[in-house]
Records
---
Amino acid sequence: MHNVDICVGLLSSVANISKSVDIFFYINLGLLFCAIIEMTALIVLCKKTSCAGVIGLAAVILIGIGTAVFVVQLFMYVYRNEYAGYAVYIGTAVLYAGFLLELVYCIMLSRNSHKTLCIAAGVCNLLPPVGAIMCVKLSYSIKRDTPGQELIFNGYAYTYAALGEFCAKNSAEFLDMAGEEEFEHLTGKQVKQRLKELKKHADGPENIFRYASAVAYYTPDSNKAVRLMAKAAAMDHAPAMFNLGYYYETGTYVKTDLKKAAEYYSRAAARGDADAQLRLCILRIKTGGAEKGMSLLRERAEKGDLCARYNLGICAELGYGGSPDPLKAVDIYFECAELGLFVAQKRIFAIAGTDINSAHNGDFFRKVTDRNFSGTFGIMIKGLIEIKKRHAADASEYFLKAVNHRDRWEGLARCLVGTLYLDRGKTDADRVNGAEFIRSAVPMLRSAKNVYSVIPQQIKKQIRKTTEEPEATGAVS
């Protein structure tokens, strides 16, 4: 009788285990769909940002293994394999290990952006249906790394990251004298006041144009900016026509339409806009008429048009009218730089900066550094040479000299002084000082904002709430 009771007890235990296995099987069935969604979202996140990339990849792998185990368990359950129960437990354990690693990944992401959303997604992923939704939202909200951010997240020096940002911003692009409009660096409150004032007086083509330009620069409402610009253009305002032509040529705020671009440029050129005439030459080059377009550029260059001369360098670099000839392009940029064309100086610096981290002494870097340039530009090139030599102290001295010149190179010089202190500073105070330099460069150099955004929060918190000039302590080694 006693033996019978034992058998009944064992059979009851087996039945309970079987029910438990059934419950876990159906739970895993739901987990499978959530895991696939979360794994896909994580893959998107890992591709968009290199921040904590190893942790993110490990989470993807664990969730992938858990999903694979579940699929195996599914077949084992269908065929009533005696080990199906073990597969259920293993699949659940591996999936939740992946979810826990995903929590760590989200916490690490939160240090750089979308803090609340990252932490919420990390916590909620332990409740798979909600976690899947939050993870998808996070993958949509996180922006793709800029070149500088990618370098920093992958373990490169802040200095190389800053150079990478600058080089990406100053790539080989055709030029006109209009250049980029310069706007003041304003606080959110000041922006609202400025836009309100401009809107109040937007009663004529020039004022509407100014309002449209401010909307385009200070707000994300590109549709409104285009509508206002079109309104000014309809009043025969040549700069507004030029801007619309540029928007359609480059795909800025609107879908690229070279035909519309040519129409707006032609209308602006008919009203005497020299930049519009130059953009028409560039459009001809881009649309297959390189020989005729370059002939027109040469005519303008012979008459002393530096922009036309610079654009011939762009043609040589990009291979319009023949094979790409970067060395010939650099020679043309040299001529323009010596005549004071700032864009040519920036392009030369960008070319040398791109070549600086090569394993060998690159042709472009050697060609640039063998030449003696005057003024602040020459000082910046000397600083670049010292970075190449890994002489951080000498490089920072040159960039500090450039800062003291208070000209158009000041923003980049400040940013590079700051990155050198972050990379080579001996104490926490040096690194905080470096962060202050980078922050002070933000109003002068847009790419400095991207570098500043990835400085650790513990350093940013120590930055003095003051307008004082950051100090050069000489502690860079």
---
Amino acid sequence: MSKFKIVTYNSSVGSGDAELELSILNRHMDGEFAHVHVETGNEAAFYKEAADADGICAWTSMALGEYEKLKKCKIIVAPAIGADRFDLRGATECGIAIANVPDYCGEDVAFHTVAMMLDCVKKITFLDRTVREGNWNDKLCGKSFRMTGKTYGLASFGRIPQRVVEMMRPFGVNFMAYDPFIPESVFRDRHVDRAETLEALFEKSDFISVHTPYMPATHHIIGEKQINRMKDGGILVITGRGGVVDEAAILKALNDGKLANVGTDVIEDEIHNTSVLMGHPKVIMTPHCGYYSEDASADLKTQVFEQIVETVRDHKPPKHLLNKDVLGKARFENK
């Protein structure tokens, strides 16, 4: 009988032959483990397997009622940067550590942001569509401006937007960012002006990318009030989370000419995959794939399983523990 049981669900992590994941378990657990992967959508099978699991990697909503079904679980790792699907308080009450992988795809999301911004500035996707429709007409692009000397604004200034600044600097733009939680030294060291409010950021920026994580406090934190402060013909790119920017306000701004183009990798309703922005000719949209590259996928799988091993076998808190209140009453602390 295996000493440890690891269950993966609703994620690419642990799926297929799981060669990388199993190599980590074999290297650290000497074969004393059982790994079970449950296919996406089979929630009943997941909870059946998870009932006696020591470690779990899953991308599914969980609250106290779900945690109580996990009789042996010591750790759940969200295979993502965010972990908004997990009720941290409920997990803490049950002694289960919740972790995420906050840095596995930063390079990829930053690159996706830059690619979307350049596409919007030069209207590449828009013009490609017109050519495919049989319209070979360079006048259809409307007004277009150089980025050099303009102001690039960033809503939030964590690791990913900081990398965006590094990638965009050769284009000769000036930078401004809004983030009340980042020390002044970070802005100063990266030669980025600090906006004291979101309204100030929108008022002074020609281009803005939004990187703000979603939580109740950030729901529609950017709406008509902020967007209307922007110069006419501004460009907005969103690669953080859906729901941070009010899509109805974006639609109105596009139709009124306040925004020239919008690029987004996220939408507010990613359960039903619907958005008022879908199909708009001035919007380029990708299906929340900015995180993906083969390199990022390998990093994700490695970090997920290394945190599970660290917690389940070594009784140590995971590197990216989210519910730090669990320390002192966590199941993994019981040797």
---
Amino acid sequence: MKIIENVLFEVSESDIINNTISIPSEVDIIYNLAFSGNKLLENINLSNIRIIGSSAFFGCANLKLIKGSSNVSKIGSGAFWSCESLKNFNISNNITRIENDTFRGCRNLENIDIPSGVTSIGDSAFFGCESLKTVNIKGDIETIGDAAFWHCRSLKSINIPDSVIEVGKHVFEGCNSIEDIDFLLYKFLSDDGKIDKQLLEEVKKIIKPLRKQELRDNEANHEKQKKMVIAS
């Protein structure tokens, strides 16, 4: 383990004991690429860490559990790229931006809460998170970068706040599990990433009643089919 003052620069396989590591209490910064490619690491406690550098855990394919991330105030780009076993991560309330590629390729990430202090989601931040089911945006996000949720195939729920003023290209491409109408409107009513708010509201007035009628029709058909089955 290479440590200079309060910065952890490098970790070797011999530092990983029982699939975890004990980070000295004086360390509050994990430098770029510090754990990159480490296949032995399965869980880690970040209770004293303030800053996680770019690609710090890149390719830690067996990293499953991260505890104590509440003090983290900055996460560099690609920090958890290809952490394929990671299922959950608690984004600290101190974070203001989710950088490019932060969780890219985290194929088993299931749910994520984006705290109220975050104002932007970077390019490809959740690119290819195939198991991601829900994204709960708690604050006033203003921008969502290119391909931020590209091919999040399992994504069923994401709330797009009214504060969003810019959406990048291919943000929700391949997100075929979402049924929420507001999401679909945002997906299709953006022009070069700029949301036409007036057009959005006008289309909502038309689409939402149609959607409600469609649901009523489906329910009526379901009841009709059920009666036919019982009668036969």
---
Amino acid sequence: MIEISHLVKKYGSHTAVDDVSLTVEPGRIYGFLGPNGAGKSTTMNIVTGYLGATSGEVKINGYDIFKQPEEAKRCIGYLPEIPPLYMDMSVEEYLYFAAELKDVPLKAGRKEKKKLRKQYVEEAMEMVLITDQRNRLIRNLSKGYRQRVGLAQAVLGYPEVIILDEPTVGLDPKQIIEIRRLIKKLGERHTVILSSHILSEVREVCDYIYILSEGKLVAGDTTEHLLQQVAHGKRRIEIVLEEDGAAAEEWLKETGIVQEVSLRPGTEEGTVVLSATVPEGDEIRNKILREFVYADIPVLELKSAGKSLEEIFLALTNPGHLPQEEDLPQEEFYPEDPLFPEHDVSGEERFPIGDLLQKEETEGVDLDDSNL
């Protein structure tokens, strides 16, 4: 479907994409995961033909995106991070305009093309649930509905691959849930590539994950296999006890069976949880359970506690760092409001208007639009 070989993109001395090679097979939802600046959007822009590459090769259904761009682009539907919408058009007008630009459908006579184009526009609106918004101007739509319109133009003509770059950025929690449902629905008929740095989003909708860091591809596999890659032959188990766990913790350390034992209160009253790192293998769990039985220590539950996607992400994008609980990213929604600089999702420093007025008086700061 898509083959990327030794892709490199440089901006002067800065390497945004560094020798990335990967394959996208049909019938899956792929997640491009990585911190900001990892090279996700740059890679997608190259794959879709929006950017050239310094070196490397990208083939889509056998077509080289650099040598056969028209043929390759016909296989792709693309939704950039900022949807390319015309605010003075109605939803329906915009989709007809997008269909004309894409020359959808390709192989049809004039009359047949007009009929099929209407059908494609109707089906795209139905797919993303915006049929009732067809006559509204895009500028009057909420951000969630604008994102749906962007998705509709991406699926026009039924391209084999749908590429979505940060499709839920800036949306409220309800809109995020709706867009994720749409992505899953698209995955039933298309191969979908989703770029995101929101871990829960990738975990929820993607079948296969590629992780980029500093322009390099550091991992590519299913979530389960990624867990095995970073486990290094070890895993964590949790033992739930109904009595004081301090003595059990000391006793477990003395057995020498486990490593890195820790203790915390259980979720139920009167219980504690022992967490320990052990080598892979079911026989270790059996041995631990037998030791507790011989020591007459009642065990309520013994289970494996695998690494979370957050831990995998930190381990692969920040080698040598052992993630602590406070390191793991918390998914929160903040308004995109210039009066709250610490909550601004754009990543740029913003200032309250009162501070700007004071800066103008004391430091001569010019109040142009970029500061608001």
